[in-house]
Amino acid sequence: MKTLIQAVAITVALVAPLASFAQSNAPKTRAEVRAELIQLEKAGYNPGASNDATYPAEIQAAEARVAEQNEATAAAKARVVDTSGFGGTVVGSSVSGAHRSTPSNDGMKPIYFGH
Question: Does 46 fall in a domain?
Answer without folding.
Answer: yes
